[in-house]
Amino acid sequence: MKIFNLILIASVLFCFNVSSNGAYARDTLIIGITQFPSSLHPNIDSMLAKSYLHGFTRRPLTVYNSAWQLQCMLCTTLPTLENGLAKKVLSPDGKSGIAVTYTIHPSARWGDGNPVSTKDVIFTWKVGRHPKSGVSNMEFYRSLYKIETVDQKTFTFYFDKITFKYNDVSNLQILPSHIDRINFTDPAKYRMKTAFDTDPTNPGLGFGPYRVVEINPGSSVVLKRNPTWYGTKPEVKKILIKVIGNTSALEANLLSGDIDMIAGELGLAIEQGVAFKKNHGEKFQILFKSGLIYEHIDLNMDNPILKDIRIRRALLYALNRSSLTKELFGGLQPVANSSVNPLDWVYSDDIPKYPYDPNLAIKLLDEAGWHIKKNGVRYNTKGKPLRLIIMSTAGNRSRELVEQVLQNYWKAVGIDVRIRNQPARVFFGQTVTERKFDSLAMFAWISSPESVPRTTLHSEHIPSIENNFSGQNYTGFRNSTMDNILESIETELNKDKRRKLWHSLQATYASKLPVLPLYFRTNTFILPKWLVGVTPTGHQHPTTLWSEYWTVIQ
């Protein structure tokens, strides 16, 4: 039923209008992506599918552009210590803090006509600071101890510490106080009551160049131009986002004309993109963009087997990741030794590495007490098999192939790994977010340049029932050395000293292995030849944040 409705919507919307000069103008752009957000609330659950969608409908105060430079987007002037919009102050505990002043674009209005104002900023802050709200970036809101209102559009943030990214508030997504305030009456239930999920087509939820007019959960989103948008008027009148979880089906839909383009952020894997370009490159624009996209396996550190560092290291020594990336991806996706990409200036190569060494993996497994083999599987002296479960997003052909290769490598050293994948909405919305995976969870993190991974590695950011599953430390990693390094990096303004701290972070990460690094991804953007202006960034901020500049050529 949903498939039929989806095709019907596409056929109705994909039409042409005759412009005044007699040329044909394309009214609708149909985009294929592989995932549907688990929640549409911009500050609850971290999922690229949601960021991609909100790129059409919202704007952050600041953003990193395609040149990897921080710029204002919703604000009018980027605050700096040099221009006086940022000033050092003393925090309530007498330590060095900073006051940073922003002004919202004077014409910014929600889709229902209400101005985007300081009231919305303060409401967003209150939601973020409440321990039961379920917001991901808890440390940002904790550090932001006061907001001072200057006027309806201007406000000052007071932080209890000076960080090297003191003016980067890209992850602060402003919420509409006039709509969602009533839903925050009971903070513990807010994530289930927010209008972003109960009333997602309400025009007052966004203020970008487009607004959501129709949603078929799990299947599609229809957007049209937002009449209250204050910026450049987008050329494309309507955008239909179709969710096609299977990447082979995604490619087939493009070739059949059911979609016009495949989003690079959530589309074909590199090996599919290379093959597609070889077979159909003359019909489309095809762009390859490497960047800060880190494919890895989170380990559940509460699993008794994985608590043993020897097991974690054996898991990595047993993998020939160089051969894997060469055979599956043509060597276009480099092996990762930590979460920091060589493209980032803080990257360090002088850290522990785990080359393919199955004999060393076997030695570590024997030392850990898993030396009895039956039918190729290792057992300990209590008769327990060395068995783990790996989970990822169902329908992603690339990940499914990788899982099978990993499974075979581990089988060769006596580790029995079972594959149990889930739809992305369930995997990210519950299994990972609520730490329900038994042992191994494979997915990707995408970050901005020099992004401190505090929320994924600090012990204060482990999701739990008590904090309503806030935070992104899904592994449950607890390490005081890592905590101290993360805190020190944030407040070190000297670049040379900060580089040394980053080296310590990468060395600790690679030594303790709460995560199995796999490789850094390259995205494939497949665009129609009649669309220009889609510029990949190579980091967490999607191309859709500049969708008002996408241009249709005749």
Summary, kept brief:
This protein has helices spanning 2-13, 48-57, 118-129, 138-143, 177-180, 190-193, 195-198, 247-256, 270-280, 309-317, 321-329, 358-367, 397-412, 424-432, 454-457, 480-491, 495-512; strands at 16-18, 24-26, 28-33, 62-64, 70-72, 86-90, 96-103, 144-149, 154-159, 210-216, 220-225, 238-243, 261-262, 285-299, 372-374, 377-379, 387-391, 416-419, 440-446, 515-527, 531-532, 551-552. It is an alpha+beta fold and 554 residues long.
Counting DSSP H or I runs of 4 or more residues, the number of helices is 17
Would you identify the CATH architecture of the largest domain? 3-Layer(aba) Sandwich
Question: What name is given to the CATH topology of the largest domain?
Answer: D-Maltodextrin-Binding Protein, domain 2
How much helix, percentage-wise, in residues? 25-40%
Keywords:
554 residues, alpha+beta, D-Maltodextrin-Binding Protein, domain 2, Dipeptide-binding Protein, domain 3, 2 domains, five-stranded mixed beta sheet, 17 helices, globular, disordered N terminus
What report would you give on this structure?
This protein is of the alpha+beta class and 554 residues long. The chain has two domains: 2-243, D-Maltodextrin-Binding Protein, domain 2; 292-521, Dipeptide-binding Protein, Domain 3 (Dipeptide-binding Protein, domain 3), CATH 3.10.105. It is 29% helix and 21% strand. The chain contains 17 helices and 22 strands. It has helices at 2-13, 48-57, 118-129, 138-143, 177-180, 190-193, 195-198, 247-256, 270-280, 309-317, 321-329, 358-367, 397-412, 424-432, 454-457, 480-491, 495-512, and strands at residues 16-18, 24-26, 28-33, 62-64, 70-72, 86-90, 96-103, 144-149, 154-159, 210-216, 220-225, 238-243, 261-262, 285-299, 372-374, 377-379, 387-391, 416-419, 440-446, 515-527, 531-532, 551-552. The strands form seven sheets. The protein has a five-stranded mixed beta sheet, with helices on both faces. Strands 18-17-19-14-20 form a five-stranded mixed beta sheet. It has a four-stranded antiparallel beta sheet with strand order 6-7-9-8. A hairpin with a 3-residue loop joins strand 10 and strand 11 (220-225). Helix 16 runs antiparallel to helix 17 (495-512). The two termini are 36 Å apart.
